[in-house]
Amino acid sequence: MTRIGFADHLFLRMHHGIGYPIYNQFLWWFDQSVRRVDLENLRDNLSDGLLARRVAASAVPTARERWVNSPVSHSLDFHCDSIDPAEVRVWAEGRLGPDIDPETGLGWRLSAVPLTDGGTVVSLVASHMVADGGALVAAFRSANSNTEQLRLTPGEQGLAAVGSDVLDAMGQLRSAAAWLLDTAVSALPTRSRSGPPAVTPRSAPNRSAAPTDPAGDAEWTSPYAVAEVDAAEWKATADSWGGTSNSLFIAVLTAASGHAGRASIGDTVQWSLPVSDRSEGDTRSNATKIVKVEVPVTDAADLDLSPIRKISKSAFTAFAERQAAGRAPAGISQALVQMLPDAVVARIPQPRDGAEGLASNLGVLPDDFITVAGVRARAVSGRASFAGADADFARTLDGGLTAWACETDATVTLTVHAMDPDRFPDDRALRDHLSEALSRWELSVRFW
Predict the structure, then answer these.
(1) SS3 state at 311
(2) Which long-range contacts (CB under 8 A, 24 or more apart) does 167-171 make?
(3) With a threshold of 0.85, does the pTM exceed it?
(4) Angle of CA points 281, 286, 288, to nearest 5°
């Protein structure tokens, strides 16, 4: 029986309405036409894989919900009428919707639309609860090749299922009780116990004042930009300045944040870097860990990427050591959080992440991910989006940019969302700040 994980549970809560549903989306831009029959075949294959799952409630209170195979899926959303290439982002936004629901088993959708210039754009959207970026890549590659599809292991039925729920509930209760006891003991005053050294809190970046526009808040949605850079130019720039594709990606985002006024020269900003914990044959929906890096904001004349490269390497090394040591994550018991009802969790003060944003670099994508029926994509865009997020919610996150980087043999595509309504009021402002950051390293850009 496959129980939902802690990250799955958080995304389910967002979907329930105590926050905003989060969807992951990949877009493939093909310069040639992709046949509908080939996309129908791809959809059928996806329906036989790990995306075909739904959430089933447990029979025993405090036991975790279960993942079960879903016999239903959305049909291929194929648009016969061509759209102008300038309308791709608007079309992509329209692929997100409340009918993509992990509790009904309709947790994902494949869509396609022809372009007036003869090309095709394909979209794959999934609830983040159903699949993180790594799970989407794995599911697509499996469906797009001749490899055997992974499926969830069928769970127990009848009394066996109830017995499994009882055991899981007992495990959850033991875990929560152990955390509560440890927390109570730690809070007792004692002269002999010496705790860990005090951690100096991070100072907030020195942000320039940004005028708020209460009237504009009602119309604000998270700005969304897709920037396409020539892959050879990108790699040559990273090499020239002592960096890697990842350090150049982080540097561009840091420069864009600084240009927008979210940080000043001399500040240090923190980026969250997702790292896949997925192994071969892994059936988890979410298997992503987060590594955080502290990046200095420097003068526009400073193009050196080697400091960011060293900072990132050090952070990844420390993360690997913590993983190898099996250290549990700090904070409130995950088992306890999963047992609490939505109404209670919604009232618990949520600590801010403290990061300037998220920088998810998927690197060079494999051939069986960027090629469909022999047609190779020129560019691939990936993103995570808070559906319906408004200005008030964005300010509670205190975050700036959420960005993904995807590389094909032709292009590096940066897909960016901004979650600061005061410094990124619209798509134009986001594109301007990204353009300024890219021009710092003399990188030319094509926006979708």
Answers:
(1) helix
(2) 168/3, 168/58, 168/60, 168/63, 168/64, 169/58, 169/60, 169/61, 169/62, 169/63, 171/335
(3) yes
(4) 95
Contacts of 250 (CB under 8 A, 6+ apart): 271, 273, 293, 295, 308, 312, 359
Sorted by sequence, the CB contacts under 8 Å of residue 216 that are 6+ apart come out as 391, 421, 425
Structural contact between residues 64 and 172, judged by C-beta atoms closer than 8 angstroms: yes
Name the one residue in this structure whose structure tokens are 């309308």: 87
Contacts of 117-120 spanning 24+ positions with Cβ under 8 A:
117/85, 118/31, 118/32, 118/33, 119/29, 119/30, 119/31, 119/32, 119/33, 119/85, 120/30, 120/32, 120/33, 120/34, 120/375
For 275, phi and psi rounded to 5 degrees? -130, 130
Residue 172, class by beta-carbon neighbours within 10 Å (0-12 exposed, 13-18 middle, 19+ buried)?
A: buried
Count of positions (residues) in the chain: 448
Residues 297, 302, 307, 312, CA torsion sign: positive
Query: Tens place of pLDDT for every residue, the chain, 448 residues?
Result: 589 998 999 899 888 767 789 999 999 999 999 999 999 999 999 999 999 999 998 888 888 999 999 999 999 999 999 999 999 999 999 999 999 999 999 999 999 999 999 999 999 999 999 999 999 999 999 999 977 888 888 777 777 778 888 888 788 788 777 767 777 776 777 554 455 544 455 667 878 777 677 767 889 999 999 999 999 999 999 999 999 999 999 999 999 999 999 999 999 999 999 999 998 889 999 999 999 999 999 999 999 999 999 999 999 999 988 888 776 666 666 777 777 777 777 666 555 556 899 999 999 999 999 999 999 999 999 999 999 899 999 998 888 999 999 999 999 999 999 999 999 999 999 999 999 999 999 999 999 9
Is-contact 19 136, C-beta < 8 A?
no
CB 248 within 8 A of CB 234: yes
Stretch (H or E) spanning 414? strand 411-418
What's at 169, amino acid-wise? A
